[in-house]
Design brief:
Chain lengths: 390, 426
């Protein structure tokens, strides 16, 4: 049984943030219909890497990872017929996700009040770089510029270096998750009161929440010690270490086979070790070189010395713990073939996450939706396809 | 549809939470923001580690105006930043009385959330099967570092160790190639958001079916979820990705560039050749017209030179002037904000993102707000983060029907109270 099986979601979004929100719905059981513009489809279909040497819109890693479990149709919302077909989908829709430029849906005659007339209780979820209001609402942005605008890059710099972004597409995932949270809160309210609403998510605000403790430090005492920390080198990679007590410090040296190393007067207390962290790392560096990441992890964690192994993608893919928990799942895609996907972000005992099917091909479910669900004829569909509407 | 009751979306929900530090505390603060009645339980002998220490060795606490005050644990920036909209109760779950009272609270609750190491709730005799005895349709969220099952599950972790384990640290590096953690224990807020997602899904399911459930969230896995596309990409290509710093697989220029002023920077991302043409026209210098920069592939290949030239151009202008210029040409850019400047950000100010909150012992300050806006039932800051045990009497008397004498006895036994015992520093 899945938790959200009673919900239908129209995912009009492209890129990363909106589609990730839609993915969370789909992965926990909602019927998510992804609506893509005909022709190119979602922009992430053009992003690499691909399974093929040349770009292939059906084999893009970013698109495939963000659109699992969704059905896919194409629809040109910039045409009158396209808008009418979307309106026909509304009466059975619970949630609409969109990331158009602010005001676009209104201009297309698909603003919240229209959607609500078609489907009382509908929840419209808008996720954009800066939200639906304010002087920056129309500004162009990417993950890099949103992280910069939210203060996230500033706390993630190396001493003396430029502000540094988090890797990958972090502000998109942050915004997408907040969009999901906003939509789900609205759904929990609708479950009780039967009333829908418009959810407005700004990726900048989602990213700013990530540094809430830093902001409070500044507000309280004008201090923000956020700074990136380099990991420590060992025999076959890098680790982070967290030594939380004097006992742990002694245990570390016992593990190194040199118990008297703990007696160094520079490092006797937590405060002293924090104060002399650089020197401490220099002193333990040659000892770390004798051990592999796994030896350090499994040797020290049972003694409550916290170790993080810097898993690169190849190691992550083989990590025995993730394998035991079934976090990485394999699935066959008709074009991209057999690939590994991240699995359940959390394990729900009664309503487990499931990869029911991989991302849709462009327009894969056009017949299913337009003919079987909405009751149009194959001739009509063929006509719309010729006209570039579908 | 114009008359809508002035309520919050989760007003019907009560959560009894043992969450601490950041990840779990954020999850349950978000529930509180949406209106849930969140009762935060702490042990008097071991309050939330984010309340800071209170011995001479403590360097972790940052207090208003650098003054720890008489009760530093009520004035610590970190704790107060992620615990608003909760009521505070101290209770020793290790004692028979404490455990009994906890179960009484659970009997009347919808949600229990905790982010202890995986063994802890079992050791208390308070794992999900035990709690389900008193509340059959309970929703319980456990969010230990590595989850409740699997070979690493007994191990504790913090953001600084789960970040490397999630694969994120290896995607960023120093110039020498050493993997880098974020500056902020990034896996914590990621798990915090995801924990809230899990609870809302479970609430919807329970509303529909009457069924509760246990949720096992691994902080390692939620962070890996945020680089999910890298997992798929690796399985596609077999190439271990190279850390890119501020660069991008195909966009160029793509980075934070020096501007006029003290430590001022602007982030610029050029997504395509037409955006580059518009930028080159604004730059209006011979180098910007060089053929090697015309196409994305060329700009990638000569990224070093491109960044060098572009920095020379940006360094003589202010970030705000550059932003106005570039945004007018529809080129993605933004001045780099810092935790110091963010409170003044015109967009966040206009949208009312920051919340002014008065805390009984820490005073009045701005805090990061609620990162989603519901048009009809927006979240609201109703309460500052609780002082240690601030709502003891209220909860004991009103919810648990204890007498003043009962409460006094619990205080005497150290099961509850407002003042933690003096701790000697280790």
């Amino acid at each position: 049984m899945t938790a959200l099986a009673d919900l239908r979601v129209l995912d009009l979004s492209t890129g990363v943030a909106g589609p990730f929100c839609g993915k969370l719905f789909a992965d926990f059981g909602a019927d998510v219909i992804k609506v893509e513009p005909p022709g190119q489809g979602d922009e992430t279909r053009q992003w690499g890497p691909f399974t093929t040497p040349t770009p292939n819109p059906e084999a893009s890693a970013v698109f495939l990872s963000l659109n699992t479990n969704k059905r896919g149709i194409t629809l040109n919302l910039y045409t009158k017929t396209g808008q009418e077909l979307l309106r026909q989908l509304l009466p059975t829709t619970d949630v609409v996700i969109e990331n158009f430029s602010v005001g676009t849906l209104e201009r297309l005659g698909l603003g919240f009040s229209t959607l609500e007339e078609l489907r009382p209780g509908v929840i419209l979820t808008s996720v954009t770089p800066f939200g639906q209001t304010g002087p920056w609402r129309d500004y162009q942005a990417t993950d890099l510029t949103v992280q910069a605008a939210a203060g996230l890059s500033a706390v993630n710099r190396l001493p003396g270096g430029p502000p540094l972004k988090e890797p990958g597409l972090q502000s998109d995932y942050q915004g997408g998750t907040c969009a999901f949270l906003g939509a789900m809160s609205a759904l929990c309210y609708r479950d009780i009161q039967g009333i829908g609403q418009h959810v407005d998510v700004s990726q900048q605000e989602a990213a700013a929440l990530m540094i809430a403790p830093e902001l409070t430090r500044v507000a309280y005492a004008n201090r923000s010690p956020g700074m990136r920390i380099g990991l420590m080198s060992c025999k076959d990679g890098y680790v982070s270490l967290n030594i939380r007590s004097d006992q742990a410090w002694r245990d570390l040296w016992t593990f190194f086979g040199n118990p008297s190393g703990a007696d160094d007067p520079r490092f006797l207390t937590i405060a002293a070790r924090r104060l002399h962290q650089q020197e401490l790392e220099e002193v333990i560096a040659p000892y770390l070189q004798r051990f592999t990441m796994a030896e350090l992890f499994h040797g020290l964690q049972p003694q409550r010395i916290l170790v993080g192994m810097a898993l690169t993608m190849d190691r992550l893919a083989k990590d025995p713990h993730l394998q035991h928990r079934g976090f990485l799942v394999e699935a066959e895609h008709p074009v991209a073939g057999r690939l590994t996907y991240p699995g359940a972000p959390f394990q729900m005992r009664q309503t487990p996450w499931a990869l029911r099917h991989t991302a849709p091909l462009l327009g894969q479910h056009n017949e299913e939706i337009y003919i079987k669900m909405l009751g149009h004829s194959p001739q009509e569909l063929a006509h719309w396809q010729r006209e570039g509407i579908v | 549809m114009s008359i809508v009751p002035k309520v919050l979306p989760l007003e019907h929900v009560r959560a009894i939470v043992l969450t601490q530090a950041w990840a779990g505390a954020l999850t349950t603060q978000l529930l509180g923001d949406m209106g849930a009645d969140v009762i935060q339980i702490e042990a008097l002998k071991r309050p939330d580690v984010w309340r800071g220490g209170y011995g001479p060795d403590d360097l972790t606490g940052i207090y208003p105006d650098d003054d720890p005050g008489a009760h530093p644990y009520n004035r610590c920036a970190r704790y107060n930043s992620v615990n608003r909209n909760k009521r505070g109760l101290t209770l020793d779950l290790g004692s028979a009385d404490g455990k009994r009272l906890f179960l009484d609270l659970v009997r009347d609750a919808d949600i229990v959330a905790e982010n202890f190491a995986s063994r802890v709730m079992g050791n208390f005799g308070l794992d999900y099967p035990a709690l389900q005895q008193v509340k059959p349709n309970l929703i319980m969220l456990s969010m230990p570092a590595y989850g409740c099952t699997g070979p690493y599950s007994p191990y504790a972790g913090i953001g600084g160790t789960t970040e490397p384990m999630s694969g994120i640290a290896a995607l960023q590096s120093t110039a020498e190639g050493t993997p880098l953690n974020s500056g902020i224990m990034y896996p914590d807020p990621v798990a915090g958001l995801m924990g809230c997602a899990a609870l809302l899904i479970a609430l919807h399911h329970r509303q529909r079916t009457g069924q509760g459930q246990h949720i096992d969230l691994s902080q390692q896995e939620t962070s890996t979820t945020f680089i999910g596309e890298q997992v798929v990409a690796y399985s596609m290509t077999g190439h271990v990705p190279t850390p890119l710093g501020n660069r991008h697989p195909w966009m160029a220029p793509h980075g934070n560039y020096r501007c006029l002023g003290d430590d001022a920077w602007i982030a610029i991302a050029v997504r395509c050749d037409t955006e580059w043409q518009r930028l080159a026209e604004l730059i209006a210098a011979p180098w910007a017209k060089e053929e090697r920069f015309h196409r994305a592939a060329g700009r990638q290949q000569h990224a070093e030179a491109l960044d060098h030239y572009l920095t020379a151009w940006t360094a003589t202008q202010t970030a705000t002037a550059l932003m106005a210029l570039l945004q007018a040409a529809h080129i993605p850019c933004a001045p780099v904000s810092t935790p110091w400047t963010l409170f003044e950000h015109p967009q966040l100010q206009e949208r009312g993102f920051f919340e002014t909150v008065t805390h009984p012992e820490a005073g009045t300050h701005l805090y990061a707000g609620i990162p989603w806006k519901l048009s009809r039932t927006p979240g609201r800051v109703r309460m500052a983060a609780p002082c240690l045990g601030q709502h003891n009497e209220e909860v004991f008397e009103r919810h648990l029907r204890l007498s003043q004498a009962d409460i006094a006895r619990l205080v005497e036994q150290g099961i509850t109270g407002r003042t933690p015992p003096r701790r000697t520093t280790s």
